[in-house]
Write a structure and sequence with these properties.
With 198 residues, the protein is an all-alpha fold. It contains 10 helices and no strands. It is elongated and about 60 Å long.
């Protein structure tokens, strides 16, 4: 049974890797299930069994990618051990490291997430709820104790991580020359100035 589950995970991963390759070379709409099958070596029946249809593949790519980044963020915040600046560093560092380690995946997420109804699907909504819970778990105590500046919850993402996301998008599109990690300290310093107490 364990071997069967492992084999299923391997097949699923092969399909998703092939899909990422296809989407990196052509727009999402023009890529067919047959192309993904050819590249992954999976049968059409197997792909439909695991994902249902192409939309299922797209949703799996979004969900798996966002979850992988979320897990990296959670681990980084745990290691920050409640130190205010270290938590801000963890927030920015984990994002930059994940994007640079997974450029095709990140490009797909940035390109596709807001061009589809996927952002309102239950798996993505659940990931967003989990993200909010993790942020609140690690930052609310710092805010309540006066160690970080209190900001409107709705503004948090726009003020703290949006500049890093914007630069990462442009880097992935080859619109800027230097990688996000080149300016990592700058993004951290900018975020820290927003949240540090006067």
């Amino acid at each position: 049974m364990k071997q069967e589950r492992l084999s299923t995970r391997i097949r699923r991963r092969a399909v998703l890797e092939a899909a990422l390759d296809c989407f990196a070379e052509a727009d999402v709409e023009s890529v067919s299930i047959a192309e993904i099958c050819d590249r992954s070596g999976a049968s059409v029946g197997s792909v439909y069994h695991h994902f249902g249809n192409k939309e299922g593949i797209l949703l799996a790519l979004l969900s798996d990618g966002l979850t992988a980044h979320l897990e990296a963020l959670e681990q980084a915040l745990e290691q920050a051990e409640g130190h205010p600046r270290a938590c801000i560093e963890a927030l920015i560092d984990s994002l930059i490291q994940w994007v640079e380690a997974n450029p095709r995946w990140a490009q797909f997420i940035y390109s596709y997430l807001n061009r589809s109804g996927a952002s309102s699907s239950e798996p993505i909504l659940e990931i967003n709820r989990r993200y909010k819970q993790i942020i609140e778990q690690h930052f609310e105590p710092l805010i309540q104790s006066g160690r970080l500046r209190e900001l409107p919850t709705d503004c948090w993402s726009s003020l703290i991580v949006a500049p890093t996301h914007d630069y990462a998008r442009r880097w992935l599109r080859q619109q800027v020359r230097h990688s996000p990690s080149t300016h990592q300290r700058l993004f951290i310093e900018a975020a820290w100035r927003i949240v540090q107490c006067d």
